[in-house]
């Protein structure tokens, strides 16, 4: 794992959601097809109540990997429970 990825995961473990968002965005800037960072960022958006941003980010994952089970499961949850 890269240092930046480790820091992003650690920020999430500690509940530092703003830092986690920033670090995952940095990883995505380095590699826009980083599915793990995109899924983590979408999760952070969900925690922060940014449901539309979360859905949009999960859709980006699905454009890269249409069968990504994390994105499929979570976008379904957000669609069923969150604002349409």
Blueprint (SSEs and pairs):
Blueprint (H helix, E strand, L loop, with lengths): L2 H11 L3 H14 L4 H13 L3 H14 L4 H13 L3
Helix pairs in contact: 1-2, 2-3, 3-4, 4-5
What would you note in describing this structure?
- This protein is mainly alpha-helical.
- The chain contains five helices and no strands.
- It has helices spanning 3-13, 17-30, 35-47, 51-64, 69-81.
- The protein is globular, with a radius of gyration of 12 Å.
- The chain starts with a helix and ends with a helix.
- The mean pLDDT is 95.
List the defining traits of the structure above.
0% strand; mainly alpha
Question: What is the helical fraction, as a range of percent?
Answer: over 70%
Q: First CA to last CA: what distance?
A: 36 Å
Q: Spell out the helices and strands N to C.
A: HHHHH
DSSP summary, beta strand count: 0
Q: Output the structural class.
A: mainly alpha
The overall pLDDT, averaged over residues, is 95
Shape annotation: globular
Brief account:
The chain contains five helices and no strands.
